Amino acid sequence: MAFSVSIVLEVSKRERMRMRIKHRKSSGFHCNAGSRCSVSVVLWSLVGCILTIYFISQINQNDEENRVKSSNHHFTQELEEIEEEEFHLPAPRSKRNPRALRRKGPRKQHTVIDEFLDESSELRLYFFPDQKSATGPTREMNDSKHFYPGKLWLDTDGKPIQAHGGGILFDERTETYYWYGENKDGPTYHAHPRGAARVDIIGVSCYSSKDLWAWKNEGVVLPAEQANATHDLHHSNVLERPKVIYNDNTGNFVMWMHIDDANYTKASVGVAVSNSPVGPFKYLYSKRPHNCDSRDMTIFKDDDGKAYLIYSSEENSELHVSPLTDDYLDVADQMRKILIGQHREAPALFKHKGTYYMITSGCTGWSPNRAMAHAAEEVMGLWETIGNPCVGGNKIFQMTTFFAQSTFIVPLSGLPGVFIFMADRWNPADLRDSRYVWLPLTVGGVVDEPLEYNFGFPVWSKVSIFWHRRWRLPNWWRTA
Ligand code: DGJ
């Protein structure tokens, strides 16, 4: 930089010399009117000044860019550090006595997932740390802002955040993030003895934040219907995975969600709309898109304003992708079936350097399973599976998505190639106590098992989600 500055000074010195000579020449040979000469001197000095200022500002700008780049690089390196996690399974339960062995056969092998789901497990606090270790703006100094995946996360009132299966909208006008999710703050029960654990619909919660860490409760922006038992939002039904996008043409905030009955046989999507990010949202209708069953779903808004619905269909055996209509209130006719026969759910999409990526989970109810990353050149194009993105922790963490399930991926402005992977650590014994697992996701490097090669190079970049017990965004990123 010192070198470049001296060049600029040299240039301006030379420029001044040149102008002085020119000035002398002009005085000697051409210039009779003194006023004309001083005008040209002033003009040339001005040009010189402008050039100097321009060069210096360029240097400063490059310097600033390099500083940001190098601090980003340092930050990304930190996020990509591998953090190991150790835990020991409690000793296996006693063997069956010979009579029970004859009657029931040998005990089923006890897995880590059984341990995770077992409320009386010695490991319970490891997966679901208690109130004492809760985190959030009322507990931690505001300058700390660490994310603690799995710990109880409190809002700005000190209450546990209720926004499960959620997604985030960034409102550009107010530079505010809005987090929408299922409010599950009710008792967990089984509607049918063999049915999935459930909580009655309470509604869709909304929280706002400037920094993605301190969240203010904006209330239930789409509440359940209490009286009308035929209404989609009747509390006895199912409302899951709400996602909101903004329509630049209509000025509407449009919410899409999974709507079902308690047995998950309705398998539909629901649509609601509001002219404010904090609601209230008006519920419009539900439907089976393209006459197909639709369970876990998400929506994705591309840079060009086109939006898409992605949903698990054909009894969760495949995903369907469809553009939304221009007002985002319905699906267009076009639909493409993807990942056929792969049995994936909980889709979460993002875009990086023109490539589309998606993280999905397997289909095992509330139990955690292995995530997969997928990539495509077009949202409506061919999607390829590129492997398990989970890195660090340990083998079991990687095989269970850190005991969580994908729901959304947040791009971080100013940090190209870094995203937040949002997942739910479900607690089927007490769904309101389900936790949030937010982790850094980066794109880059070679995929483990590239499926396709282009002139010897794998086509896709690797997607990695790094386990951290505690991590944070850089200080300079955003302040509340
Ligand atoms: C898995 C889905 O991803 C969740 O949203 C929820 O529907 C559970 N299944 C219910 O078992």
Descriptive account of the structure:
One of its GO terms (biological process) is carbohydrate metabolic process. Helix content is 20%, strand content 31%. It has 480 residues and is α+β, with helices and mostly antiparallel strands. It folds into two domains: 41 residues, no CATH class; 351 residues, Glycosyl hydrolase domain, family 43 (Tachylectin-2, Chain A, 5 Propeller), CATH 2.115.10.20. The strands form seven sheets. The protein has a five-stranded mixed beta sheet. The protein is globular, with a radius of gyration of 29 Å. The chain binds (2R,3S,4R,5S)-2-(hydroxymethyl)piperidine-3,4,5-triol (DGJ). (2R,3S,4R,5S)-2-(hydroxymethyl)piperidine-3,4,5-triol binds next to strand 7 and strand 15.
Distinct compounds present: (2R,3S,4R,5S)-2-(hydroxymethyl)piperidine-3,4,5-triol
* Topology-level CATH name of the largest domain: Tachylectin-2, Chain A
Distance between the termini: 34 Å
What's the number of domains?
2
Sheet-strand content, in percent, reads 25-35%
Shape: globular
Unreliable residue stretches: 1-33
CATH class placement of the largest domain: Mainly Beta
CATH superfamily of the largest domain: Glycosyl hydrolase domain, family 43
The computed structural class is: alpha+beta
Q: Care to count the β-strands?
A: 25
User: What is the second-level CATH architecture of the largest domain?
Assistant: 5 Propeller
Number of helices: 6
What's the average pLDDT? 87
Family: Belongs to the glycosyl hydrolase 43 family.
GO molecular function: hydrolase activity, hydrolyzing O-glycosyl compounds
Pfam family, one: Glyco_hydro_43
Biased composition (Basic residues): 93-107
